[in-house]
Structures are given as C-alpha cells and as structure tokens.
Amino acid sequence: MNRAVSVAVTGAGCLCAAGPDLDSCLAALFSGKRAPAPPRLFATGHSVPYPVFEVGENFFPATCPADPGLLRTARLAIAAAGQALADAGWEAEALTGLRVGVAVGTTVGSAMNNEEFYRDFRSGNRPGMAAIRHFLASNPAAAVARRFYLNGPLQTVANACSSGSDAVAVGAQWLRQGLCDLVIAGGADELCRTTYNGFVSLMITSPEAVRPFDRDRRGLNLGEGAGFLVLESAALEQARPGRTRARLVGCGAACDAHHLTAPHPQGMGLKRALREALAPLRDDWSGIAFVNAHGTGTLDNDRVEGMVLGELLPQVPFHSTKGFTGHTLGAAGGVEAAFTVACLGLGRIPASVGCDHPDPQLPVAPVQQVTALAGRYALSQSLAFGGNNTVLLFEKGERP
Amino acid sequence: MKPAAIQGVGVVGAFGCGVASLHESLRRGPHPPGRLIFSAEGRGSSMAAYLADPTPLERFVSKRETRRVDHFSRLALLGACLALEDAGALEGPRDDLGLIIASGYGATRTTFGFLDSVIAAGDPCASPTLFSNSVHNAAAAHVAIQLRITGPTLTVSQFGMSVASALARALAWLAEGRVSRVLFGAVDELCPVLGYCHQRFFGDPSGPIAPFALHRHSAVPGEGAAFLLLDGSGSSRYGLIAGADLGRIPVRGQLPGNGSYILNAAGHPSCSSHYSRLLPTGAGVAAFTPHYGSFPTGQALDLAVAALALRDGQLPPGIWGEALPNGWQPATLEQGAVTCVTCDGDGYFGTIRLERG
Amino acid sequence: MSIKEKLKKILVEELNLEDMTPEEIVDDAPLFGDGLGLDSLDAVELVVLVQKHFGVEIKDMDEGRPALQSVNSLAAFIEAKSAT
To answer: Is 0.90 exceeded by the ipTM?
Structure first.
C-alpha cells in the first residue's frame, strides 16, 4: 500500500439548499443565489429566528420518497449517493459482482436524539419503540449499502464537521488497500432542532445570512444535505476510459488537541493537515488553483483559517461555499468535495458569497467575483469541533 | 497487511479498571450485575446492568482538568490513560500518534442531558457545555486534549460493527505509515433511556448472561471502554492484530472450522443465532460477556481478553454453560491464534484476528 | 443570598469548579484567563446560567464581554437589567 497512489473520482452528487443536484447547485453558486430562512422543519423558542438552509421536499428525487422508517439523514445520503453513481455512469445492476464500499460522514445521522420520544419518556410515559427502530435502521453507511444492494466494506464516520472529508479519505484508503473496486464516499446530515439549539447556545449562530470572512461576520447558518463522490480502482478506471472527473491525490488530518469547541489559535492542526495533504506535490505548490475553505462564518474559524492560508498559501484564491449551503456539519466535507471537483473541471470558482467587506484583520480575502483558475490542483479543508482538521487535495481529471 | 502489535491495554468495565482487574475477574468468575437506576418523572425503578466506574481517572488527570468531561468521555479517558500506562508511554511526545475511537451509541447520558436542559427551561436555556459533550467525537476530543495527541483523530459509529470497522482503519493507518502508533479505543455508556429500550425490546434482564444459549434471551446491558496502544514494530508481549473485517452473512460463508473464536455472544437471540451460520461444527469457542455485559462495542473487551490470553499463553476459563451447541468445542490457544467475532441483528459480522507476538 | 453570593455558588456548582468554594472567589478577580481560569465555552454557559437563574438575557458577546469580566461586573449587569 502506498499513500502516494492517487485515486480516480469518476462521479459526484450533491443535494442541499443550493439545489437538488450538483448542476443546479453550481448554477446557484455561480449566479450568487441563496435563500436562508427561518426553520420550517421545526418550531423554535428563540426570540431571534436564526436563518437556516433547508432542503425542500421538492428537492428529493421521486426515487427517494419520504420514508417514516428512515431518518432524513439516511434519505439525503441515499439521494446524493444515487446521483453520484449516475454521474459516474453506473446503473445499480452493473454494480453486482463488484466490491463496492460505502463511507459516510455524519453527526445527526448517528445520534439518538429524538426529542419527541424523549419528552414522552421523561414525563413518565412509556413511548413506543418506533423512533428507536428507525434510528437503528438508519446508520447512513448501512442504509446506502442496503438501498443499492452493496456488499463491500462500510464505515460511518462521526467526526463532527470534518466527517465528510474523513469519509472520502477512508474510501481512498480502501482502494489503495485493494479492498474495493468502487467506493461511494461523502457525508450526509439533516437539519435538526437539537443541533439548532446547540449551535444557538454556543452563540456562534448568525441572526442574518452567513458572511464567511467578512469584517462583520456574526456566525454560521446551519444547513443540511449530502454530497458524495464515486471513487474507483485503477482497474475499473482503465476499463472505462474518459470518465475521470478528478483524482484524489492527497489527504491530511491532524488534531489541535486544544479545546472542545475552539480551534487552535495558531491553527496548528490545520497547518499539519495541509502539509500532509500537500506532501504528494513535494515542495512545488505552484499548481494549486484554489482552496475550498471551511469558512463557516464564525469569528474563530475564519480568523484561524484566514491566518493559516495567509501563512502557507498567500497567493492562492480561496472561497467558502457555506454562504450558499449553510454549514451542513457532517455533510459539509462531502458536499464541498463535490463542489471542488466540479469547479476544478469547470476551471472557475464562484464568488465567496457574503463577504462584502473582507476582514482587514486577516492577511487574505476570499474571491469576490467569479474567478478563472490557473493550476491543476485544488484543496478542500474541514475543521471540526473536537479539534480535528482534515484536508483533501484533488487534481483535475479528464472530463468536467 | 502488516499486523499491528499491541503494546498496551487499558480497560474499564463492571469488573473494575485495568488489565489486572480484568484478569482477576476472568480467573475468579464474573460478579453479579449492579443496578441501573431510572429517574424519569413519576417513575423510580431499576434494572440489572453491568456498570463501570471511571473514578480512578483522578489518578491520571486533575479534577479541574476534567470538570467538563462527562461519564462517557471519562470512561474513554481512563481507558486511554491505562493503555498508555500499561505500555510505559504515559510520558513522551505523541505527535506520531493517531487516535481512533469506536462507539455504538455515543454519549447517551449527555445527549439526553442536553435535551433535559431544553425541555426543563426552554430553547434559550439549552446548555452549550452539554451540547458540545454530546457529539460522538467528544471522547476523542477529550482524550486528544488531555493526552496531547496531535496526529489524526477519527470516531466511528456503526452500532455493533463499530469496533471491527474502526480497528480496520487503525491497521490501515499503520500499514500506510500515516502514523507510527495508533491509540485505538472503544466506549459505550448506559443511560435510563437505553435501559428502558432494553426493557421494551427484551423485558427485564435477570442475568446471568448465558452466551451459548443462543436462542434464549439472557442479555444484561453493560457499559465500558477498552483501549489498545498499537504500533507496527511486529513484536509484543500481548500479540499481534493480523486483521479486522466486516462481512455479511452468508455472502462469505463460514469461518474456518479449526480456529479458536471469542464470540461477543451476550444473550441476544437476534444476534447470537447468526453464530451458528458463521461457525462450523468443531469450531473452538469461548465467550466472556458475563464479565462486562452487553453493549455495542463490547467486542473491544473481547479483544482485550484475547490480548491477555496471548500474553499468558492460555485462554481464561470460558463460560460455556451446560453443553455447547452445534458440535462446538471449548476454545484453546493451541494454534497461537484467536479470532474475535461479533454478529448484529442485521446480518453483519465483524472479525478481529489475533496472533501470538 | 445576594446576587454576588448566588453567582459564586452558580460558578462553583454549575461549572464544576470542584477545587474551590464559593467563598474563595474574589469579587473583582477576572473570570477568564489567569483569574478563575474559565474559557470561551464557560462564557457561553454563563450566559445561559444568567438567563436561567436571573431571567436576564445577554443577547450576544458584544453585550456579554464587558459583563463577564468579574463577579462584580456580572452582578452589576444583572442588577441594571433587572431594574429596567
């Protein structure tokens, strides 16, 4: 096994507030359209209607009807995974006989926090077990494998906000190990009253539309969605030439070991993760076209990320797409991996929406208009609660 | 793939904490279970459960440093400290160390504690401390912070398959040279909601767990943590982990009939009945779940038992009951290898193969 | 119990400062950094505790930062808000 071996990305799929599929999302990103709104999925008791980025019911494909026996997170995962497979040119039947792995990052999708059930239990009643059965049937990796009749390895990563990126790294490792012919890897997370209350309580939720890297940023907006890549073995790639959208060239991860919720003030973990992800380029970083920043819009995140980018990659254009999607937590790494692959193929990145007045305290500013790319490589970085940082390095492929 | 060498073992469970306590419990036979107290409004009751006490953590970390660390993360942190201590690695740099933690259900007490804060005083009084401790990777965060682990950290959550799945990642990290050592651990905790779920699904547990009464419900819920310090050195007093895999029954058919197996059979017929499809007649089997109870990541404690057995050159007395089913035999260590096996109710199985170091 | 006494009790009990008693907290000692050693997560927890125990809302950290300097400043903030 060699960490330096790159892995083909042959398909990408995404479902989030920006659009029902990857093409619609990109159209929204490049037109600067976004529509955060107070939550409609649940009621809240806050005096401020903190806006969120919800996925409308009409965004789900007909093949994924609402299923009361499945958590919304698993439904989002199945929808986006299906898209990614279709984008890679795979019919479900054609996967029979292949070793197909599924790696999914999530936060809500693995948490047992059904509020209705618990209110009932807490008040001394004996609530029925339906909610628990649904939870037990909805582990995202298992749910995707079940839906597409897959029999390869499964992994559900619960690594907070870097989960989606971590899952992509897991998938690449399976291929290098020779355990799989094909891997569906990414992240999925639903918007949930519990996480909404949690992020509001941390006072990092913005009362207005999120403004990553802006001088006046006031916090994040939560979002929901799912994003997946299809990764393939060298043998499959050669058997179906011309399908490669990008290559996953490097992965890095490191922990701040600093604080439960705050990033390391000097970005120690992020720098280490970046250097590890960039190791395959050796010292020549001139080919890096852009960085998809985590860019949540919180004071701390954007400060640390801006500082680290200013130090390591001061000339490289970067943007945050969370102004279009909200922070989709465990899905973010998957959603943004899909965006990164697509933007590399298109040769341009959208303006980093929400940044009207770049923060003068930061050494760098995100792109404020659609920007043409120079270079074959792109980075996507994720910073997580708990201090983990994960960075993925992609190289441009054969088709956009 | 190159095997991973076990350099240290740290365990916490109903038997106490540390390898010596586990060893003693295995030698003497399991204690009867304790009681999990329910305290939901309008109801006071209790049920049999194997509970773990993380108080000895004070030996490693000051109270001040752990003031925000909940029961779940304390179990993990204690397991982690004990594993490093056992390996003689409590001191020294840890920038070459990766951290991987498996949990079936995460920090359930704090998950519901956070909901308590919302329900009791309304949405504006939701507790940020409880929220940030309720996420699945909180244990990994606390372990990394307290032990200054700056390599990659990963938390894996797949119910009963969590341990085999997460351990496979640890082996791959070592094989690829991503890190030179991995602190691998697993943790789960009990809470009243899980106790209630157990009652609703299976009735009141009475104990003792009869692992090999495969079709009779005898499960008693448990909690605990097991951590292993792994490296690629190839030599270990505890043995080597040669592989960790997930599979689906019956896709890959039966496991080899001449092997020795530690089953995570814990008295759940919906899981245990699958062992008959997986293990052929003549297989050598043992189970140790009556020492720590039934929980999603209990396989990590089986793994610790296997490591102790390889160190000692013999398996501890198993708890087989009156007669083994399926023509199975009591397991021995004659071949110098043992495989930990777990099955879930959905037809997945997880295996971890250990060999003498 | 005065607001300050109640605050000190809340600090010790709800932030689990097990290594000290309420009486040991000095009225004008800094709550964060070198003083009591609290951090950003304690700050937001304190905002919730003030809401819960005194019914006083701290809207955001622009308002919270000056109030959360010491027991003195926080008590003064609560008194001023309660009076209006």
So the answer is: yes
